[in-house]
Design goal:
heterodimer; A: 114 residues; mainly beta; B: 118 residues
């Protein structure tokens, strides 16, 4: 089965601290793409970071970085120096079947405390 | 950046009527469009994948005759909820995958449509 699993329904982090959101996925394909999306209350989907499965180097976008473990099928998101504006629902997603299927995890609500 | 226009943003209709939701890529051609349904504080559930000029591929459990998807051009896909009932009330989101990407896969999302069936 092609699934994406986020095991943390909610996470909290203190402002300026670091938090890691977990994601695992299941696919038999060797080439696919992984994404983290942020969904604020407006419900607009915002791309946070993207990883190509054939690239071993972990993707980084400013305060956001991933720990991609292909063998373990794990794709966690680290947010450094957390800001109040980071508070949102975060979804992990996997684009598979040669780009014909984009599957999302259940989501993690991130709360940032001031 | 690339923009996907989804219209309408909100629609209220009577039970038994049909509602059409449009998803349009404004500055790129979309080979593939994904349609999702999202309940409050839940994940995006993939309903179907549509490729331009061919029939949509529906996920298991999604009624093809209920949720009609048309992808007649590289810039427009529509989702029609036929004979809508209150249980069809939900937030619907489309996502477009460009035909050509020079820097890896990118996906662009519409802003969503909140459907309320009375």
């Amino acid at each position: 089965a092609q699934t994406v699993t986020q095991s943390q329904p909610e996470m909290s982090v203190q402002e300026a601290e670091t938090v890691t959101l977990s994601c695992t996925y299941d696919t038999s394909e060797s080439d696919y793409y992984l994404f983290w999306y942020k969904q604020p209350p407006s419900r607009q989907m915002i791309l946070v970071i993207r990883q190509e499965a054939y690239k071993q180097q972990n993707a980084t976008e400013n305060r956001f970085s991933v720990n991609f473990q292909k063998a373990a099928k794990s794709f966690s998101l680290k947010i450094s120096d957390s800001q109040l504006g980071d508070a949102a629902m975060y979804f992990c997603a996997c684009l598979m079947e040669y780009g014909n299927k984009l599957v999302f995890g259940a989501g993690t609500i991130l709360r940032v405390k001031s | 950046g690339a923009v996907v226009s989804q219209h309408p943003s909100r629609v209220i209709c009577k039970s038994g009527t049909s509602v059409k939701i449009e998803c349009r890529s404004l500055d790129f051609q979309a080979t593939t469009m994904f349609w999702y349904r999202q309940f409050p504080k839940q994940s995006l559930m993939l309903m179907a994948t549509s490729n331009e000029g061919s029939k949509a591929t529906y996920e298991q459990g999604v009624e093809k005759d209920k949720f009609l998807i048309n992808h007649a051009s590289l810039t427009l896909s529509t989702l029609t909820v036929t004979s809508a009932h209150p249980e069809d009330s939900s937030f619907y989101i489309c996502s477009a995958r460009p035909s050509a990407s020079t820097s890896g896969e990118k996906l662009f999302f519409g802003s969503g449509t909140q459907l309320s069936v009375l």
